[in-house]
Amino acid sequence: MLYSKLFGKTVKKAPSDAVLTSHKLLYQAGFIRESTAGRYFILPLGQRVQQKIMNIIRKEMNKVGAQEMLSPVLHPLSLWEETNRTNTTGFELMKIKDRRDMWFALGGTAEEMFVDVVRKFRPSYKDLPLNIYQFSLKFRDEIRARGGLLRVREFIMKDAYSFDGDEKNFKIEYKKMWNTYGKIFEKIGLKTIVVKSDNGYIGGEYCHEFVVESNIGETTFLTDGNKYNAHLDVAEFTRENINTGEEIKPFKIIEQPEWVKTMEDNVKHYKLPKSRFLKNVVYKNRITEKIIIAVIRGDLDVNKIKLEHVLDAVGQLEDASVADLKNIGTKPGYVHSWGHKKALYIGDLSLSTVKNFIGGQKEKKSDAINVNLGRDLKFDHLFDIALAKSGSIKESGKKFIEKKGIEVGNIFQLGYHYSNKMKNAVFVDKDGKEKPFYMGCYGIGIGRTMAAVVEKYSDEKGIIWPESVAPYKYHLIGLDLKDESIKSKVHKVYKELLSRGQEVLFDDREDVTAGEKFADADLIGIPYRLVVSKRTGDKIEVKKRDENYTKLVSLDKLVSKLS
Amino acid sequence: MLYSKLFGKTVKKAPSDAVLTSHKLLYQAGFIRESTAGRYFILPLGQRVQQKIMNIIRKEMNKVGAQEMLSPVLHPLSLWEETNRTNTTGFELMKIKDRRDMWFALGGTAEEMFVDVVRKFRPSYKDLPLNIYQFSLKFRDEIRARGGLLRVREFIMKDAYSFDGDEKNFKIEYKKMWNTYGKIFEKIGLKTIVVKSDNGYIGGEYCHEFVVESNIGETTFLTDGNKYNAHLDVAEFTRENINTGEEIKPFKIIEQPEWVKTMEDNVKHYKLPKSRFLKNVVYKNRITEKIIIAVIRGDLDVNKIKLEHVLDAVGQLEDASVADLKNIGTKPGYVHSWGHKKALYIGDLSLSTVKNFIGGQKEKKSDAINVNLGRDLKFDHLFDIALAKSGSIKESGKKFIEKKGIEVGNIFQLGYHYSNKMKNAVFVDKDGKEKPFYMGCYGIGIGRTMAAVVEKYSDEKGIIWPESVAPYKYHLIGLDLKDESIKSKVHKVYKELLSRGQEVLFDDREDVTAGEKFADADLIGIPYRLVVSKRTGDKIEVKKRDENYTKLVSLDKLVSKLS
């Protein structure tokens, strides 16, 4: 490609609102331009990178038997109604009506569509496992788009869907995808951390994100520095014993000064750590209107996501209002750890780590002390509903550290979530009976992956593309082009490289200084810079983008290396 | 690919509503499935064909310097308002609002978007010519979708946009695209006819369609059997002289029986051919409300499209109503060829081919005769506003024949249509001045091209893919697989072919008869069928899909041919 003819030339300045390195560099180097907030033109250089990323993904997916296809982007809304997802997605669904008055959703994810196409075939057990995928546009009606390609409203996603006969076979497929993702990102040049995550609006029971560690990432996760990585929302941790050796004392209602209202007041008044007190947090299920009181040790916070999973009410809980509290006979700051009728109590695992809790039945001038699990505070089960934090302890004894990263891919167990809700989402098993599919799904955002690469590979001069995803392998620069002999030499080098099937961006401009050409080459970030000039004589100067030294080689030598 | 694992197996029956060969065969052979009317899943076999078609296009486009990029699919509606296209497109535009209340159009064609991205760069004359393209989803809110991929509501299109400094340079680019399209379709195996067409909602002055001749096609065109092919809407033809040698007689108002009302009545009464009478057709411009009377020779019909171009009022004319006629002081059947005030008269070229016209001033019991152009009937210019028909004559003396075909691609001159309407759609010329772009655009529908191939290449057994776009090159069939030695032999052949980088669909099923396997192979239509069975001994039976004989070759020989 002649740089003089390239659409998307470099510019000196990034947009004033650009904060992220990837946004600035992809803009300045001519890889992207914004259409409207969160919707980007991918310019020719950017499109070449996207295609290389897609080809790496395609190759690895095909290698493990996945099959590429393509689904429409306008999904009949009736399908989303079948799974009751029209109101429960995490992203706002965009809807549109055609002129025959049929409603569609603009695909944000395509589980229903893939179930729909598979069920048309009524597959046999012999067709399973089945893993089908596509590269297709996805739409997310994000309230806030982020600068550059990291959080956008429209993007290409590789989304794959697996269909198995049972959980055991699914787990083999899940592991296969896990390993395939590892290979894909490694080939792209990205070191990823696999982070246990919440499955959110997708449904199913567990999932994992592939995260590139980065301080500008939007994903916050906890790691024990060993092998355990998890989102705050799902991280499991050990509730260390506080005073389990202490003797159980008789339950007592005592007088308490009226100024003792908050947890901090309690700590001050009793001169005891937060962990000795009971804490209550009240939610309302916005669909059933049921009131839920979560009871937890005073030093911990309730994790709403975990609580929703315990209650099988994903996306349904909201903070209770003053009116809701009044309804069950109480008010803010005076919720009891037991006894409010009409409310459902859920206790956290931490309740078993303390003897003689303080609190739980606060009134204006009194509260309870020596409250003990099993005697005063009764639950059939305790659940893990607490929010893990930096410093929380894993079984290994290691403490969590909080890290940030960019989510570039994810794998989801869906189980029977969709096949139970959608009609005829079945295969015919060996015994001739119809059984529902056991499903999974697997996504990779293409633009975000490109941006993540730039976040990891750049310096003050520009991007440093890994060879596997670079828009071109060689950036050929001709200098002193007014000299016809040099001009003809560099054009010869260009043609020779092309004839060998090499990918070359050739800066053939005659009205630009050497300094500008070098700066553009550094900004664009192609792996090998080749220079032909008066100074290089019969040879070609070669420099790797990420190295500081150059060497002179002959065309023959350069070319022989290639063939 | 193992056929046993392929998603999208063959089925015996086509959908009951399938009429077209391509619809039936692509469905039965497992290339496509309908989601909702006009929106299709492209199954793995179909996606492989689409990708081959796209790669052929990509290669040829890149060869002539076009650059691939990608534009968002949701176009800010404000851009379509800039060009006043929100109401004038030929297809119904689908619109959608995001939750920040911003309106978008679902892209049906992307002229505005590409102008918008190019103007962000304020290019120099040195950057021109510029030709940028994408493969992207297009949406058309068609009232009626047609079975299969021939007329759909959502499809992948290659759309390219060229930017030149002036008409002269544009014409070079237009010819380049014309030739490139020829090469593309030739490589795909399609013989195309280039048909001059109306540019409709795209804007600009002229355009050409690439049409595959087919009786099931929706495109009707006229051909002189030589080099001239044109849509009915734009076809130019010669108005043969009727009686130009006749002496001009004095204009006269004569009595005429009341029963003479229609053109047929005239022919009967005067015993003269239709061509001797004047005909008037009345339209209203629905935007300006202006009344237009088109005057034409009695044997010809007015072509509304041509008339709209003459008036620079594309998409604006409608048939005049009785009320409209009353407004200019007349009624149906009594419109005059001159003299109605408030109406604009436009005359067809054919008016110069007749002397002593009959008609033009019909009243209840009278009409005019010996009406002559220039004396009684006055126009500053005559225009080509007549509809060509089968039998109309070209200058060459050849008569038009009507043919039908499938439009697989089109190329459009846009001229200054967009750059004049959109702000800053300019480049900086040599003299430092800003000048508007001279533009063109170029489309190819991917799915429709696939369907056109099937319409051209099939027999009663199924599809016969040209090798260049076949989903696989080899269809390997294993028979007698209960015999372990044969099973291992066919698997060895499969692996050997794969290791040589060959594309093989391997029918490894053990519970299917030879007959079924052969029938499936014929239906799917892969170019080379390879059979390994007891009967083939140490060799492999090879049969081309479009030939009736087989031959036995050794694996070594087959393989040596490939390397």
What do these coordinates show?
The structure is a homodimer of 563-residue chains. Chain A is of the alpha+beta class and 563 residues long. The first copy, chain A, has 3 domains: 272 residues, Bira Bifunctional Protein, Domain 2 (BirA Bifunctional Protein, domain 2); 132 residues, YbaK/aminoacyl-tRNA synthetase-associated domain (YbaK protein, Alpha-Beta Complex), CATH 3.90.960.10; 91 residues, Rossmann fold (3-Layer(aba) Sandwich), CATH 3.40.50.800. Chain A has 13 helices and 30 strands. In chain A, the strands form 8 sheets. In chain A, strands 3, 7, 8, 9, 10, 11, 12, 20 and 23 form a 9-stranded mixed beta sheet that branches. In chain A, strands 16-14-15-17-19 form a 5-stranded mixed beta sheet. In chain A, strand 28 and strand 29 form a beta hairpin. Chain A is elongated. Chains A and B meet through strand 1, strand 2, helix 2, strand 3 and strand 4 of A and strand 1, strand 2, helix 2, strand 3 and strand 4 of B.
> In CATH, what is the homologous superfamily of the largest domain in chain A?
Bira Bifunctional Protein, Domain 2
Bin the helical content of chain A: 10-25%
Oligomer: homodimer
CATH architect. name of the largest domain in chain A? 2-Layer Sandwich
CATH topology of the largest domain in chain A: BirA Bifunctional Protein, domain 2
How many separate structural domains of chain A? 3
Largest sheet of chain A: 9 strands, mixed
Helix- and strand-based class of chain A? alpha+beta
Largest interface: A-B, 57 and 57 residues
Alpha plus pi helix count of chain A? 13
